[in-house]
Design a protein that fits this description.
The chain is of the alpha+beta class and about 475 residues long. It has 13 helices and 20 strands. The longest helix has 19 residues. The protein is globular. The N and C termini lie far apart (about 55 Å).
């Protein structure tokens, strides 16, 4: 089968390589040219490429099953497996410590060595008319929207007799039996085909982060688990993600509507804030670690789920399948993004193996599976982030509503008898609904007036004062 893929990020490369290994003829179109000769890879337009990341065990497992060469390249580049030790002494594999760029380099290098997978550079944007579609010679129609970038690109998805027939790239049609949209949450080539997200949207939280590296021989700062250190403070949150070879990312999450905390994007403000937070100050102590990037603004965060259907409930276009962030996007707090993407990609490969060229069966089966196995994770984040934002605004836990997963986890930490039931959720081997069995006990605990302890450190108002003072001493920083 001939397959055309929009996008060559993790979803596109993993799926494309898996299909090529099965004997399919695959071409992926990607606007990013890849790493430069000097190794620099700015990856413009992919914000998360440069930011803090956690990689779940599902990512390691998917590579081991489909692209073992990519896993070996990732390990050789420094990726560090980590395990969670349970009270009984057993261990649960949890994932990898690694930067996103280290992961993507290994995946790209491996995938492009798979015979049958071609990569073509393009802007992955498309042509439209006033109704969201335009017509070209030799084909029934083209869907999508034009972008403003220059250079070669995808003009749209071509269709014949009500099904996808390939891609239009620089005015030339790339014929395909199956088209896969792996262009991510910001992809525009097929945007007109589906309605707005059926679940989720902006969550009211934004973040900023910065990468540091431990000095030779220096020990890490405090850790709450093998991957991260986290502090839930009064009105905001900070997380340290361990990466590879002593690199770590310091992240501060805040309400979107706080203009003072938005100034954390300035180095002087970020450093002053980090020094004021107990525990975090230990991590960034110059005697322990040095910054290796500038401060990286992350922007507003999004939780969103979209299926394979249009507004009429039918497949948006038979023969076109959406995968990865084009289906599900979650905030980075639990490090689930790439895991959710590769779980989708693995299932899509299984369904193509099962249904062959029956593209309607592939799309419908994949849509049903994602609704059962992927959508609950997005809804879990929607619920948690909304509860977090309310607490940051000073509101109490609402016991008239279902408890968010993070509140159930916090309650479970107080009762050893409850802890075994959280393992499946934490490892993503059980859906969020697995925590419901703990909700009555958690609800009873909250009804007594107990609340999770706020981490020591400045309140949001106090942090705002620290930021303003730092900017006053360095006026040019905020210019």
């Amino acid at each position: 089968m001939r397959v055309a893929i929009i996008g060559a990020g993790p979803a596109g490369l993993f799926t494309g390589a898996g299909l090529a290994r099965r004997g399919h003829e695959v071409i992926a179109v990607e606007r990013d040219p890849g790493p430069a000769a000097d190794g620099n890879w700015p990856r413009r337009g992919v914000m998360q490429f440069h930011h803090a990341h956690g990689f779940r065990f599902q990512v390691e497992q998917a590579l081991a099953q489909e692209l073992p060469d990519a896993l070996q390249r990732w390990l050789a580049a420094g990726a560090e497996p980590f395990r969670l030790r349970l009270p009984d002494g057993s261990e649960i594999p949890m994932g990898m410590r690694s930067r996103r760029q280290t992961f993507e380099r290994a995946l790209r290098d491996s995938a492009l060595n798979v015979p049958g997978l071609q990569l073509r550079q393009g802007h992955a944007e498309a042509v439209t008319d006033q109704r969201g579609r335009s017509f070209g010679p030799g084909m029934d129609d083209v869907t999508g929207r034009r972008g403003r970038g220059s250079g070669p690109g995808v003009d749209g998805v071509t269709g014949r007799r009500g099904r996808a027939a390939g891609l239009l790239v620089d005015g030339v049609e790339l014929e395909a039996d199956l088209v896969i949209d792996a262009s991510g949450r910001a992809g525009r080539a097929t945007r007109s085909l589906r309605p707005a997200p059926v679940s989720g949207g902006p969550c009211g939280i934004a973040y900023v982060d910065r990468q540091y590296q431990l000095r030779p021989g220096a020990e890490p700062g405090p850790l709450l688990n093998p991957l991260a250190w986290q502090a839930d403070l009064d009105g905001y949150q900070t997380i340290v993600f361990m990466q590879e070879r002593g690199v770590f990312s310091v992240l501060v999450a805040r309400p979107v509507n706080d203009p003072v905390l938005a100034q954390l994007r300035h180095q002087v403000a970020f450093e002053a804030a980090a020094r004021a937070i107990p525990g975090l100050a230990d991590w960034i102590d110059p005697a322990r670690a040095l910054p290796i990037t500038s401060v990286l603004p992350g922007g507003p965060l999004l939780n969103a789920y979209r299926g394979q259907t249009g507004s009429d409930g039918r497949l948006a276009l038979p023969g076109l399948v959406f995968v990865g962030d084009a289906v599900a996007t979650t905030t980075p707090t639990f490090g689930r993004g790439v895991a959710i993407t590769l779980l989708q990609a693995q299932q899509l490969l299984r369904l193509i193996d099962e249904h062959g060229t029956d593209v309607e069966a592939i799309g419908e089966s994949f849509d049903g599976w994602c609704a059962e196995q992927i959508k609950p994770w997005v809804e879990d984040h929607v619920h948690m982030d909304e509860a977090t934002r309310r607490r940051w605004a000073g509101q109490d836990v609402d016991l008239s509503q279902p408890l968010s997963s993070d509140l159930i986890l916090a309650a479970a930490e107080t009762d050893p008898a409850m802890r075994p039931a959280i393992g499946g959720y934490l490892s993503m081997t059980a859906l969020p609904s697995s925590l419901r069995v703990l909700e009555p006990g958690a609800r009873a605990l909250y009804a007594t007036g107990w609340r999770p302890r706020v981490a020591p450190g400045p309140t949001r108002d106090e942090l705002a004062g620290i930021i303003q003072a730092a900017l006053r001493t360095s006026p040019s920083a905020a210019a």
